[in-house]
Amino acid sequence: MRNEVKVGNIIGYDLPMYKGVPFIVHSIYDTGVVIRKIKHEKNDRMINCHNLAMLPIPITIHRLRKFHFMQIGEQFVLNGCWITPTKEAKFHLKIGQFETSITAIHKLQNIFFKETGIELDLPDY
Question: Do 47 and 78 reside in the same domain of the chain?
């Protein structure tokens, strides 16, 4: 996952106390990343997260809505990016001529930026 993660990506952290908590990547180094909870409190600090402790955050319909994708029938659209839920928690993404299956938020962020030049707004958690 290390080679796929960029600054600003949303990832998970593989510790039981942080199960389901989304983190944003603040910086990247050889053996990991520095992350912070998206919804952080005043006394929360940055965390050094080793490469092996990074987890993908799965795409869900709820999370697509938080990223401001509009639902049209069974599809979701934002700035010409069309996402269709498929079987087994996968999503089909189409932007222009580019199409792929995706499952993780950080991949959606990276593809969306590469194809549109626009960063996805961070959702409210």
Answer: no
pLDDT digits (tens, 9 = 90+) for 42-98: 677 888 888 888 999 999 999 999 899 999 999 999 999 999 999 877 999 999 999
Residues 6+ apart with CB under 8 A from 86: 92, 101
pLDDT digits (tens, 9 = 90+) for 2-38: 678 999 999 999 988 888 888 999 999 888 898 988 8
Q: Are residues 69 and 49 located together in one domain of the fold?
A: no
The domain of 31 spans: 2-55
Measured in residues, the chain has a length of 125
Q: Which of 63, 69, 125 is nearest to 94 (CA)?
A: 69
